[in-house]
Amino acid sequence: MAYLLLACSGSSSLGEASPRFDKDVAPLLEMRCLSCHNEVEKKGELDLSQKDSVIGNVIAPGSPYDSKLFHAILGPEPEMPKTGKQLTPEQVSIVRDWIAAGADWPTGQVLVDNPERDLDWWSLKSLITKQATVEDSTGSDPSPNPARHRPAGHIPVDHFVNSKLKEKKLTPVEAADPVTLLRRLTYDLTGLPPTPEELAAFTHDPDWERTVDGLLDSPAFGEKFAQHWLDLARYAESHGYDKDKPRNNAWPYRDYVIKSFNEDKPFPRFVQEQVAGDALFPNNPDAITALGFLAAGPWDFIGHWEVGEAKLDGRIAKHLDRDEMVSAVFNVFQSTTVQCAQCHHHKFDPIRMEDYYRLHAVFAAVDRADRVYDGLPPEQQKRKNELLSQITEKKKDQESLSTTINRIISAKTSGLDRRIAELKDKYGTGSAQKPQFGYHSNITKNQNEEKWVQVDLGKPRSATRINLIPSFDDYAGIGAGFGFPVRFRIEVSNDASFQKDVRILIDATKVDHPNPKSRTLFCEGDGRPFRFIRVTATKLRERKNDFIFALAELEVWPEQTDNNFAAGAVVTAKDSIEQGTRWGKKNLVDGIYFKEITNPDAATELESLEKERAALAESLRPPETDKRLAEIDGELKKLEDERKTIPAGKLVYAAATDFPRGGRFTATAGKPRPIHLLHRGDLSTPGDPMRPGAPPLWPTVKPEFFSGKEWDEAKARAELARYLTRKDNPLFWRSIANRVWQWTMGAPLVGTPNDFGRGGMEPSHPQLLDYLASNLRDDPNHSLKALVRKIVISNAYRRSSSGNAENAAIDGSNTYLWRGKRRRLTAEEFRDSILVISGLLDRKVGGPSFQDFVIEKPQHSPHYQYHLYDPNDPKSHRRTIYRFVVRSQPQPMLTTLDCADPSLSVPARDESTTALQALTQWNHRFVEAMSGQFADRLRKNTTSSAEAKVLLACQLALGRLPSEEEKKILTNHLSEHGEEAFARVLFNLNAFVYVD
Q1: How far apart are CA 749 and CA 815, in angstroms?
Q2: Which of 379, 561, 715, 816 has its CA 20 to 30 A from that of 484?
Q3: Around 672, how many Cα atoms within 13 Å sit in the side-chain half-sphere?
Q4: What's the number of CA atoms in the CB half-sphere (13 Å) around residue 635?
Q5: How remote is the C-alpha of 682 from its chain's centroid?
Q6: Is 962 helix (H, G, I), strand (E, B) or coil?
Q7: How far is CA 282 from the centre of its chain?
Q8: Residue 118: which region, alpha, beta or left (left: phi > 0; alpha: psi -120 to 50)?
Q9: Left if phi > 0, otherwise alpha if psi is -120 to 50, otherwise beta: which for 308?
């Protein structure tokens, strides 16, 4: 009706003055229109930021009803705005009256996107403070067994659930039987199966609340709930990206999380420690370990360590690193997608770009590194870091001085060096110093089969010369030059796979080359550092009716001649003959080859040349350089001696501002990097400088933390921690309440646990969610265990998972909780259960992670080889949460069973059913090995009767005795195929794989 009145009216109402552009119109356009229709985006080819693109285009001055813009905002279902609420009648009238008055727009005035903060959304509204009024709702809950059901009127959770069921005309199913309930509860609270003894005791005396309390007090509770948290925290023990290096000190954070859940740490304290523990609770080991949360995500080693912030790529890596921390904090702690405001104001939620970059300012001084959390006072740790940085700088000075003087010497002595090498090559004989001969490829009948051998120098090196020294062998009379390729190329790279950054130093692949005999091949470097050198034979030399590739030695020389970089380096090859001491990859870099000079005249000349070279080199060394090198040696020794006096301390990989320099990765020592608002998120277009703050998503907070110009980085993180955990922050309490409900009931009340904004889902039970959130907020202990207890003692938790056709027709997805949720064992629960059932689970708590893989010696990056691991190794028989988690090469079995991706914050696991899972559960090496162990247990703990073994096995694996039909089938299978095959059958039964 209001819009109809507007359409009928042709002038300003009540004779009021026309709207002013600067006061009325411009703020309205900036607030509601410019986010989509600005100079950059121009949605629908429309830019509303400038006069020339508006007046005469979508606005006809003096004629509102001839103006496209006015028609787009008019009516009960207007075309614009596309997102958010439509304009109010008052706002529409402002636009109409402004156009009618001539659409005045001052020349030169450009509008900017300045959206309103619309806080009218369910998740941003204040929490209820009044406790739930539990009205009569008992009639809708069947209670066949008092031990499994309590009157619903005594349980607030049931009041809310049953009210919703009544509203939706749904009838709750009856309670599950005691055995099913105990199995469900035990898995949900500990992630492990109940023992036969626990099942027998509960069946005899089904005291539900006492059982709940016992499981909440179990150390396994913290391990189970910590796994939920680590999924959120994107926890892993390797960096990710292309150089997925291990983080050997990440595990203390994992242990901190387990300990916090077991000790029922107040949830606000738990969160504050993970954001600013070192600032809020100094010298507290837990509070420092907790900072592992900020560092838990992926980290670009190359961008930080090898590129550095002096280059744009390094600054981009640093920006993305802060974005990862900011996103994790807001996604996890208050279910807010703040990262969507990186390039523009958030399209759905009241978050501006300024809010996002203020959060960058909070983390402007923070990096990820190993830091001491216990065993070393802060003063000593700071001094240790200073010493390590000074040692690094001294070594760089030492190397620079040595390189400079050796470059001079090398240039002046190059002629002598060449003549010395020629003599050694020309007069070398077949008399070896030792029997090590060199590298020898596999033998082939195909002369054109490519062979290659590669040397890893350990790190990028600058070299002026590479020497290839031919082999010598009396086999088939070939002698010197044995196996030296007819055609070949020499390449260098910093990529071990030689897929990128490849430089060819010599390309000798076009024509055949004669046997070099004992003459060394010299190859000049190109002046650029490289880590890997590869020699590829493209046409092989004949041995005797077959072909091979062989080299005696490969040397890599810098300017100085006394430091062969290749000596003792790691050698890899396409293939290799490893034959005792005669042939082997390591012999290529052992410094041993045929070089004895037996010709008397040549030996005399060689001795003279070497003396001449030594004298010349000595004369070229400036005395002041040698003096400075000696001084550096003394300074290094002094620094090293002091460093050795400082204890090592216990390390955790965590957020840090002070750590030893490595490569181009340098600590800030707490000094914030300058942060600017970036136009379109582009570092090359910085805007206004930003100060620490956070989005004002509820009325009582301000967007900036500090009023002064300077700020302390630790204080900024402390302010953020306080902002997150405020009692009046509705997002914080609703977020964790939703997660706890999900972790116990199997599905969240809000289907998008990391996004409570307008782009996410709304709660299925908003009053229940607010009850749980306010209950946790108002609990003096802020106890998560108490919240879990409130949920699992409810009748809603204890319902059977059986179906009901009438209910399913109304609510097939069980959104309104008329039955229990049937779920698969998680990947960790599957593995842990098999270990329990096999009698092998090691219940050791905490400590360094076990590795269910073998790390091949790294070239470019580590290779995590799971197929080389022995599943019978007792060190790996711990709970899966103590497994070393790798990002780039995830564990194949667990990944197939829907394990979380550690590179992302995973609020809810996928639950799939695939053929690959069945194959994995039957054929995986771990399952095969544990089937043998389970079979041994059955043989040791029962009589020879197949039926006795079946009864024990079902109690252990299924938590119950088999039915008569099951017993018959399983007994026949065991008798026919044996205990191992029978065990694999049990591990694949739905009764084992599913909780209910």
Answers
A1: 8
A2: 561
A3: 24
A4: 17
A5: 24
A6: coil
A7: 27
A8: beta
A9: left
147-150 long-range contacts, CB within 8 A, separation 24+: 147/178, 147/206, 147/207, 147/208, 148/175, 148/176, 148/178, 148/181, 148/206, 148/208, 148/798, 149/175, 149/795, 149/798, 150/793, 150/795
Structure tokens at 306: 């090898």
Task: CATH number for 428-596: choose from 2.60.120.260, 2.130.10.10, 2.40.50.100, 1.10.443.10.
Answer: 2.60.120.260
**The pair of three-digit structure tokens given for residue 6, joined into one six-digit string:** 């507007």
The first and second tokens of residue 721, run together, are 């921690």
In 3D space, the residue among 703, 791, 776, 816 whose CA is nearest the CA of residue 127 turns out to be: 776
CA distance 195 to 201: 10
Which amino acid does the sequence have at 702? K
d(CA 249, CA 849): 10
Q: Where are the chain's structural domains?
A: 2-116, 138-175+728-810, 266-376+652-724, 428-596, 925-993
Question: SS3 for 535?
Answer: strand
> CA-CA distances (angstroms) from residue 773 to 120, 292, 735, 739?
19, 26, 8, 11
Give the Cα separation of 89 and 75 in Å (integer). Answer: 9
Amino acid found at 52: D
Quote the Cα angle for 371-320-884, to 5°. Answer: 50
Parallel/antiparallel/unpaired status of strands 367-374 and 650-656: antiparallel
Beta bridge partners of 652: 371
3-state secondary structure of 480: strand
Closest CA to 833 of 992, 983, 725: 992
Tell me the C-alpha distance between 773 and 131, whole Å: 11
Among 986, 921, 924, 916, CA closest to 951: 986
Q: What is the C-alpha end-to-end distance of the chain, expressed in Å?
A: 56
- Distance separating alpha carbons of residues 71 and 59, to the nearest angstrom: 10
> Cα–chain-centroid distance for residue 29?
41
Contact predicate 763/122, CB 8 Å: yes
Count of Cβ atoms closer than 10 Å to residue 824 Cβ: 18
Give the span between the Cα atoms of 149 and 142, in whole angstroms.
Answer: 8
Q: Are 766 and 121 in contact (CB under 8 A)?
A: no
8 A C-beta contact, residue 758 and residue 117: no
pLDDT at 147: 45
Q: Mean pLDDT for each 10-residue chunk of the chain (996 residues)?
A: 42 60 84 79 83 84 86 81 80 88 86 79 84 43 46 77 96 95 97 94 92 97 98 97 93 98 98 97 92 97 92 94 97 96 89 94 96 81 78 75 76 79 66 66 92 93 88 72 93 90 90 84 82 95 89 86 85 89 88 70 76 79 78 83 81 92 87 92 90 93 86 93 97 98 97 96 97 96 97 96 95 96 96 96 96 78 90 96 95 96 95 94 95 94 88 94 95 95 96 94
The helix/strand/coil state of 455 is strand
SS3 at position 233: coil
Cis peptide before 81 (omega within 30 of 0): yes
Q: Which residues contact 655 (CB under 8 A, 6 or more apart)?
A: 291, 292, 294, 295, 325, 366, 367, 368
Tokens encoding 593: 């080859």
Which residue's structure tokens are 């969160």? 271
Give the whole-angstrom CA distance, residue 872 versus residue 756.
45
CA distance 250 to 252: 6
The DSSP secondary-structure symbol of 491 reads E
**Whether 930 contacts 874, CB under 8 Å:** no
Phi, psi of 522 (to 5 degrees): -100, 135
Taking the CA atoms of 723, 728, 731 and 732 in sequence, report the sign of the dihedral they define: positive
H-helix or E-strand spanning residue 931: helix 925-941
> What is the C-alpha to C-alpha distance for residues 329 and 541, in angstroms, rounded to an integer?
62
